[in-house]
Write a structure and sequence with these properties.
The complex is a heterodimer of chains A (613) and B (258). By secondary structure, chain A is α/β, with parallel strands linked by helices. Chain A is built from 16 helices and 20 strands. The longest helix of chain A is centred in the C-terminal third of the chain and has 25 residues, at 532-556. Chain A is globular, with a radius of gyration of 23 Å. By secondary structure, chain B is α/β, with parallel strands linked by helices. Helices cover 34% and strands 17% of the residues of chain B. Chain B has 10 helices and 9 strands. The relative contact order of chain B is 0.11. Classes of the chains: A alpha/beta (613), B alpha/beta (258). At the A-B interface, helix 3, helix 4, helix 10, helix 13 and helix 15 of A face helix 1, helix 2 and helix 3 of B.
Chain lengths: 613, 258
């Protein structure tokens, strides 16, 4: 079944389904989890807000990082592990980073078994491309549309296996019984009718939070649903202060501001220049990466062909470093006409090469900005792209603190530490999607099935309908959800953005409190059938809760590390480098509490990898 | 550079509806989806639109703009005169759910009838080898973002509802072509394409190719080669005779018919 219809017997009433495993989200992590759960013998359903195949994974461009060793036989999981940990400024959960590096190659090869067509090396193997922070060319790719290939392959596999998919269906609550998961409650976007899933295992695979920011590369679906569902179910979030601003988003025209420009442009030879024509990244090489970064143009340019005798160009530093550098150049008045800086591949590679390696970028700039990237530089600037923070999970099983509740992909936390390397997301989805699916299936088929309490369903229903019922607030009309969303995005962009200070973060918490009050008075027009105003009103509650997590954690962490930069605490602090910030729902159920927790300690044999160069 | 744009947007549901006039402020560099979003945020909060990435990558926001099937997010306002009224209607081939959102489940039903890649075992080192030149043919079809504009414009189903049962449509013909051109695939799906998917009903008017936002040569590189290969198998007298008298045909390139 497509799920895109009501069953006739449910007319007017509540639709109910029973499964072993319900996966929320149909991006890379969700689909890989569903495939794994199905193959483990569990009755599995995927529930997603959009049509199947449209999830945000589709927008991933560069590739999936996996130490296949096809280009550089020297590349092994140990090197990948080391790059990942250093990219995350050592705050990563070491066990997740280890599993990820070890299992990513087989997860990529498996996609090929299922019909994926990756670009090839001269020997016919899967081609691998250079990316920031990766010592060797490591990203399996298909031009610059790798995400599309990944999602289509997983989608076709899911359909082939006959997994049930509930499309355009939004989950608003995870239901529990006696402290463990009992199911999930949601509504069909198309009809507005409610649906209850009874399931002992629920896997959150809902992606990120980017829609809380004004300038973002994320789609409308990225409203932090899984983060908020986990909090409300009693699980914890970690690392929420770490938000990745991708260095290269489009800046013009305004309509596409924030739209992603793939890191592959730099991996394939592109450079960053300012209004004076200077290749400025050489001025921003941090101490932490100095030993492995080229300090002359000659060495940087020679690296593309000879990695043994040259060091990486500074344009391929991890994303947090590059984004900060671009931000500084723009602030210093050396920006481009539309407030970005220049990304130039036209003067570096011939037109055929560019069109072949970067077809989507060529198309995107041509169609949306009238810019021919084979002839002129692009104007780009930082854009909110990814949240490193997420649900705290067991690194091997992906289970949260709530029995039966799992999280995989961007919605989970720990894997990427304070900063994610490009290409590590697609591989993360595959590795931990599979692990979550298998553990959720194993858990679901042991022990007694929990039951969904009728009172919980009633409460979830009342919450979902609240935006229709709220009478206009005191002193006038109700609030428009679109206006609240707009104000939230502005506040997060201005006050909890790429560079942060204590006074601004404090101001943001005040602003978030006011927005929450306004959200209590939200009113939506129309009825329940495919009503985007209502859908936004429900998503907004998640956005506000998760934004509060980000702001609170950002205020608490008094240092700069990875995707968290404090103007008032400019350097990293070793003490902070040994602990995570954990967020949980407070007693009122409307706010969050914050606590410190020591980081898991890496065993000696892995520590050893960081002793050598 | 802001100006007032006149729009006519189809509002309604399965019961019926009508074009409604709006005036909305727009500015330089915007696309039709921006204008509709501003309508949503300021004038009509419940206007139903299906969209996701707003970057031409997910294929969600398909509709008809001045009668032509297009993506709302990739249609720039600068393609029109500022004084021109832009009319936006839902895709005609699929039943309306509400406003600009249609029920595209036809496509998901057809997708479930499709065959899949069936590769032989990996090489001894656990990897597979294919040449770039060989994968490129299939890669062209895998650029498809499933916007279903080709399905929308295809007159075989656009004007003949009863054909839907027997006809998979251009989006899925290129899936057959892709599998057929996969260098390591082991199955021969020509009979399936002809019989179950209704490949023969296509009379190559190329409308699908014209509306493809990804510029895939659906007809020339997908449908026509598939048709030719079906014809080779079905009507070539030597192949026919060979089959009849039990000679092994090289026509299948070692693939197993399914």
């Amino acid at each position: 079944m497509t799920g895109n219809e009501m069953s006739p017997e449910a007319r007017g009433g509540m639709e109910r389904h029973a499964y072993d495993v319900v996966v929320i989200g149909a991006g890379g992590a969700g689909l890989r989890a569903a495939i794994a759960a199905h193959e483990a013998g569990a009755r599995t359903a995927v529930v997603c807000k959009s049509l199947l195949g449209k999830a945000h994974t589709v927008m991933a461009e560069g590739g999936a990082a996996a130490a296949l060793g096809n280009r550089w036989p020297e590349d092994t999981w140990q090197v990948h592990f080391r790059d990942t940990m250093r990219g995350g400024k050592m705050l990563n959960n070491w066990r997740m980073a280890q599993l990820h590096a070890q299992e990513a190659p087989e997860r990529v090869l498996e996609l090929e078994d299922w019909g994926a067509l990756f670009d090839r090396t001269e020997d016919g193997l899967i081609s691998q491309r250079d990316f920031g922070g990766h010592r060797y060319a490591r990203l399996a790719h298909v031009g610059d549309r790798t995400g599309l290939e990944l999602i289509r392959t997983l989608q076709q596999r899911t359909v082939q296996l006959g997994v049930d998919v509930f499309m355009e269906c939004t989950v608003t609550e995870v239901l529990k019984q006696d402290g463990r998961v009992a199911g999930a409650f949601g509504y069909w976007r198309e009809t507005g009718r409610f649906v209850t899933f009874e399931a002992p295992s629920v896997i959150l695979a809902t992606g990120g939070i980017g829609k809380s920011y004004k300038v973002t590369s994320n789609s409308w679906e990225y409203t932090g649903d899984g983060h908020a569902l986990a909090l409300r179910a009693g699980a914890d979030l970690i690392n929420m202060e770490f938000v990745q601003f991708h260095p290269t988003g489009m800046v013009w025209p305004p309509s596409v501001k924030g739209l992603l420009v793939t890191e592959s442009v730099r991996g394939d030879g592109g450079i960053l220049t300012n209004s004076e024509g200077k290749r400025f990244m050489f001025d921003y090489i941090p101490e932490f990466f100095r030993a492995e970064t080229a300090d002359t143009v000659e060495e940087a340019d020679a690296w593309y062909d000879d990695k043994k005798n040259n060091r990486r160009p500074p344009e391929l530093l991890p994303r947090d470093e590059v984004a900060r550098a671009i931000n500084s150049e723009i602030k210093a008045g050396r920006g481009s006409p539309h407030g970005g800086i220049f990304l130039d591949i036209a003067s570096r590679r011939d037109a055929d090469y560019i069109r072949k390696r970067l077809p989507s970028m060529y198309h995107q700039f041509k169609e949306l900005a009238d810019v021919d990237i084979t002839a002129e530089p692009m104007e780009i600037g930082p854009t909110c792209h990814y949240v490193m923070g997420g649900v705290e999970v067991d690194p091997d099983t992906q289970q949260s603190a709530v029995p039966g509740l799992y999280a995989a992909g961007e919605v989970s936390g720990g894997m990427h530490g304070s900063n994610r390397l490009g290409g590590n997301s697609l591989s993360d989805l595959l590795v931990f999607g599979k692990r979550a699916g298998e553990s959720a299936a194993a858990y679901a088929t042991t022990g007694e099935r929990p039951a969904v309490a009728e009172a919980d369903v009633k409460a979830a229903q009342a919450d979902a309908l609240a935006p229709f019922d709220v009478a206009a607030g005191p002193g006038g009309g109700g609030e428009n959800p679109y206006t609240i969303q707009h104000d939230l995005q502005q506040a997060m962009n201005d006050l909890v953005g790429i560079i942060r200070t204590a006074p601004e973060l404090e101001e943001s918490l005040g602003e978030l409190a006011r927005l929450k009050e306004r959200a209590d008075r939200m009113v939506v027009e129309g009825h329940r059938q495919y009503n985007p105003g209502w859908h936004l009103a429900l998503d907004l509650r998640n956005m506000l809760l998760v934004s509060e997590c980000i702001a609170k954690a950002a205020l608490a962490r008094q240092e700069s590390r990875g995707g968290h930069t404090r103007d008032d605490f400019p350097g990293p602090d070793p003490e902070w480098g040994a602990k995570n910030l954990v967020l949980s729902l407070d007693e009122s159920g409307h706010g969050v509490d914050i606590a410190e927790k020591p980081l898991p300690v890496m065993p000696d044999d892995l520590q050893q990898l960081f002793q050598d160069t | 550079m802001a100006y007032d744009l006149k729009m006519r947007v189809w509002r309604g549901d399965a019961e019926g509806g009508e074009l409604t006039d709006y005036t909305v402020e727009v500015s330089e560099g915007e696309v039709v989806l921006d204008a509709l979003h501003r309508l949503q945020a300021t004038q009509t909060g419940d206007l139903a639109i299906r969209w996701n990435c707003k970057a031409g990558k997910c294929g969600s926001c398909s509709a008809e703009i001045n009668g032509r099937p297009r993506l709302l997010c990739m249609t720039r306002l600068s393609d029109f005169e500022p004084s021109e009224t832009i009319t936006v209607t839902p895709m005609r081939t699929f039943p309306v759910i509400r406003d600009l959102v249609t029920d595209v489940s036809f496509n998901y039903e057809k997708a479930r009838e499709l065959p899949y890649a069936e590769l032989g075992p990996r090489d001894a080192d656990g990897k597979r080898r294919m040449m770039q030149v060989d994968v490129e043919r299939g890669q062209e079809f895998r650029k498809c973002i499933e916007c279903y504009l080709c399905q929308d414009v295809c007159h075989v189903v656009r004007d003949h509802e009863d054909n839907k049962q027997h006809f998979a449509g251009p989006r899925f013909f290129i899936r057959y072509a892709e599998l057929d051109m996969h260098p390591l695939d082991t199955h021969d799906r020509r009979k399936l394409a002809q019989d179950a998917a209704g490949l023969g009903m296509c009379n190559i008017t190329k409308c699908c190719t014209e509306v493809c936002p990804e510029g895939i040569h659906i007809t020339d590189n997908g449908i026509i080669p598939m048709k030719e290969r079906v014809v080779d198998r079905k009507y070539d007298p030597l192949v026919w005779l060979g089959n009849k008298i039990g000679l092994r045909s090289k026509d299948d390139e070692g693939r197993t018919e399914v």
